[in-house]
Design a protein that fits this description.
Four copies of one chain form a homotetramer.
Chain A lengths: L2 H10 L9 E6 L2 E4 L13 E4 L15 H10 L5 E5 L2 H9 L8 H7 L15 H12 L5 E4 L3 E6 L2 H23 L8 H13 L9
Antiparallel strand pairs in A: 1-2, 1-4, 2-3, 4-6, 5-6
Helix pairs in contact in A: 1-6, 2-5, 3-6, 4-6, 4-7
Chain lengths: 211, 211, 211, 211
């Protein structure tokens, strides 16, 4: 899917409201990203931004989060897609200041462990990007990140993968919130988490890939 | 959008049930408002009411809340739209008697602080309108207001903006309720809230406006 | 709307799952009611049952709850519609054994007070009907009733009104559950509840009626 | 319905996200099952697997859970359909490590008692199947089973019945979670549960069957 389709998927899945959220895709030396202020549900085009210097290629104001997206593409060569949402359950964990502990085989499969949380970041610059890179360097299997008091970013080897991670992190945030309310948070053993992650990423799908 | 489209949007977004809720638009010396008893999802026309004296322009019984809407238009010259819902999370905060604290950058962007709550108001007269004006005078950035034991009113420079605020206040009420249940309500620093509000209202969108 | 349309509305509004729930309408000496085992979402016809002796008018097995519906029509001459759902929030109150306290003006408008709860009833006979009649006799404004450990019944002067009550009782159950979780249940004063109920039922809508 | 229709129903009902979940159907000596990695919402075909030795009949990688499904068909001759989901409420109970207690007549009707929970199982082999058989042998009315820290499996005499159980177990998990949050879990008396189950499975529907 392209950036416009990704934005509309985020809206249809209930992960963004109003003009919240955005998606971008790296194509060569450029990233395409949602225009600033556009509603994800009604976006009609994407802005083109040079990754090297952040110059905009045409008359189009890119998302406020463009510097954060750009920092991610420049720091992590293998990613092609970045997604940002304020999906309710994940944003609640981010507001309460908790990482989402890995209590299900589903989260093990998709994320290989807890969903980490950053410190509070200023919006509009590269700080969000730098915080995500720091969390990613700690464990390079990570593709979803909570931003404290703000929301979620996901990254992917494709834009489809980043969108799928945005859907899955909200699902995990939902189930884990429900279990937390029951006073029933039991983190799976890391050895079980790792076995599930490995199975899901190496022996899954029609071509040995989960994407 | 016009009043009929606004009402249908409120129903489609799950912010009203049955004949709950209403929307109005100021056009010159008149306001158009949902008829009394009409279901938002099925409204077909709007009633026309003179702002000066409240006279109805045609054979049509306007919403019970018409005096409250009229009081708002008469007290706050810059608004063109008013929306009222009983959206579930916001109404729960209103019933429990709490303002919604500002714990996310999203609420900072949209509302610039807490969502305030009124005292209990009689329905059908101007009391709701007067209470909202009192809360708005305290901080004129405010566009969403809880009415204790009742629901939500939003105001906007356009009807579209008032509808957007009604969507966003329910989103904020949802996320903040979830965080409150985790015993994790951390109000953002006012300096951060103000910086986000300023960025969102001055440097956002394709024409420097979030609306 | 007729019985088939009512059943489909219940499914579309998320008030019933699978073959749960049913609706009936009194037409003269007969009631039409959902067939036993039919999914509300896919019901295609209604069974015809004589109110006097419960005889079925054609080859059709009526809903297990037919004796309860019949008992209601025979005891309360002014009702024309009865609806039964297992909507999640109302059923949670019914399972926990609580009446739903009236904490909002919305519940005041629609129901004029708390939503009462019965004792545990055997299914398939008239016991559910008798319990509802007992609760209704206590306050004849009541149109929605929790059945302990089971679900909800609503009654109406029309089938449309009974369906609307089924939608509204779930809305009230939802908002009130959210407020209860915040330790914020404040029952409105009965004088306020009565004023709202009176306004809603006497001075509302295009013809002075809320239905 | 066939396997493809079953998978799409699970997605439409909100019981699975992304490539989670699967469904299978026994047809003679073969089972048809969702391909590995396929999204339930977009599955287009099913893989064919021999029940006797697990050989795949064509170029198609079956779901990782195929050995668990196969173990169920081989141990329980009367079942024709198996469904697996990660539906949020049921998965929360499974993560918290609780069986779902039977607190409603609806759960009595559909399941005849509590929804049992297994120990933690390795994914990809027969362990999940063996655990379910063990729970089923304890009470052969059981058609839904929580897998600890993982999700839900349901079985049915038809694939339609297994899909219906997957819908109903999430409904029961939802209502019971809500009641648990109110500190209001009251298990029904087993004699009431048994009476409801018997009525629902022997005297219900147009042909004396609930399916």
């Amino acid at each position: 899917m392209n950036v416009v389709e990704a934005c509309r998927t985020l809206a249809r899945e209930g992960l963004v409201k109003g003009s919240q959220g955005n998606a971008s895709e790296r194509i060569g030396a450029v990233m395409l990203i949602k225009p600033s202020g556009a509603s994800c549900a009604q976006t009609k085009f994407a802005c083109s931004v040079l990754l090297q210097d952040g110059d905009v290629r045409e008359k189009c104001t890119p998302s406020t989060d463009a510097p954060a997206h750009r920092a991610l593409y420049n720091a992590i060569p293998e990613i092609k897609g970045v997604v940002h949402t304020h999906s309710p359950y994940a944003t609640a964990w981010a507001s309460a200041g908790w990482a989402i502990p890995c209590v299900t085989t589903g989260q093990s499969d998709a994320f290989g462990g807890d969903i980490p949380i950053s410190g509070f970041c200023e919006i509009g610059g590269e700080e969000i990007g730098r915080e995500i890179v720091r969390m990613w360097e700690h464990d390079q299997r990570r593709t979803a990140f909570l931003i404290r008091g703000h929301g979620v970013f996901t990254i992917g080897r494709t834009l489809d993968a980043a969108v799928k991670s945005a859907v899955m992190v909200e699902h995990c945030a939902h189930v884990t919130w429900l279990a937390q309310q029951m006073r029933g948070l039991y983190r799976l053993a890391q050895v079980e988490i790792d076995a599930n992650y490995k199975r899901y990423h190496e022996n899954y799908g029609q071509h040995g890939t989960s994407e």
